[in-house]
Amino acid sequence: MYLMNISNYSGDLDKFQKDWKNVERFLEKHQLDGVELICYEEDYLDTLPRHILKGLHLKYFPTWLEFYKNDHQKVCEMFGGIEGVRQYYGGIHPQTLIDAFRDEYRSAQEFGVEYMVYHVSHVTTEHSFTRAFDYTDDDVLDATVELVNQAFDNDSDVMLLFENLWWPGLTLLDKEKAQRFLDRINYKNKGIMLDLSHLMISNPNLKTAREGAEYILKMIEKLGSFKEWIRGIHVNLSLPGDYLKMDHRAEYAELLKTEDPFERYLKTVGHIKKIDWHVPFDHPLVKNIIDLIEPEYVVFELLAQNLEQLDGYIDIQNKAIGRGAK
């Protein structure tokens, strides 16, 4: 099944004149079977045709570990006080996170989606610039197991797929860690959503799309039998090696001097976008990756500024995989 990512955020739907019928026509043009949705509030959901809605990308709090561990002092320092904490998480107690994911789980069941995607990662704004992490993969994985087993405490037909990132957490660079993590998740209908860009970002020495594809193929082979847990893939390309090798501590120092919270947010997002590109994987070896994994879901997870660019991106991605547009 071939899908594309989309959100019900007005800025995203502006590309389609806020009309889901235009989204349907776009999907048909590019031989796509539906969408993986990121859900913002309740906007435009009443007119969303359920038959195109196949997956739900759950909320992602990049920074959550300190909050979940109830380290109020540290969290207040990071978010400028208790109101900043409330604004970011929607509450001031760890239960807020559990409730947020429980709500989205209920939404997934009500929508009738086939799968949910959960990011297994943690990073503070500071460490996204400095990479001087004071937490490990195991710290993040252990806390995620605890949180997930509380939030998703009853099984359903909706698959729960865990996505890899390059920050501490589920990187998929260590198959034993990944297997231990999945084994401790009580939700039975589970698996992995492999994000190709996120795996590439873990190797800053990659220079070309071919090198990226060859690296991914090698890493999948290293996973051995764990590969069978991969039920879906996010297809895109990122080769930020040169940027990752730069020293960004001065940028972070400048960020701290920025008083306006929204401007700080935009600078941080700009930094992340230089790492995680969300552009088409334009090398034909991407088809070898898909053939090796044989996933149930192939999601074109691309970020475009307008419909024309998105149209071109999907064409490039289809062509690389060997699929023609109508």
| Element pattern in H and E | EHHEEHHHHEHHEHEHHEHHHHEH
What is the structural class?
alpha/beta
Give the distance, in angstroms, between the N- and C-terminal Cα atoms. Answer: 17 Å
Can you summarize the main beta sheet? Answer: 8 strands, parallel, barrel
CATH architecture: Alpha-Beta Barrel
Label the overall shape. globular
Could you say what the CATH topology is called?
TIM Barrel
**Rg, Å, rounded:** 19 Å
Number of helices: 16
Beta-strand portion reads 5-15%
Are there runs of 5+ residues with pLDDT below 50, and where? Answer: none
Q: Average pLDDT across residues?
A: 94
Number of strands: 8
Q: Order of strands in the sheet with the most strands?
A: 1-2-3-4-5-6-7-8
Taken together, the total number of domains comes to 1
CATH class: Alpha Beta
Helix % is 40-55%
What does this entry look like structurally?
This is Xylose isomerase-like TIM barrel domain-containing protein. It comes from Acetobacterium woodii (strain ATCC 29683 / DSM 1030 / JCM 2381 / KCTC 1655 / WB1). It holds the Pfam family AP_endonuc_2. With 326 residues, this protein is an alpha/beta fold. The chain has a single domain (58-295), classed as Alpha-Beta Barrel (TIM Barrel), CATH 3.20.20. It has 16 helices and eight strands. It has an eight-stranded parallel β-barrel with strand order 1-2-3-4-5-6-7-8. Strand 5 (159-163), helix 9 (175-184) and strand 6 (190-195) form a beta-alpha-beta unit. Helix 4 crosses helix 5, helix 8 packs parallel to helix 9 and helix 11 packs parallel to helix 15. The longest helix is centred in the first third of the chain and has 17 residues, at 95-111. The chain starts with a strand and ends in a 5-residue tail after the last helix.
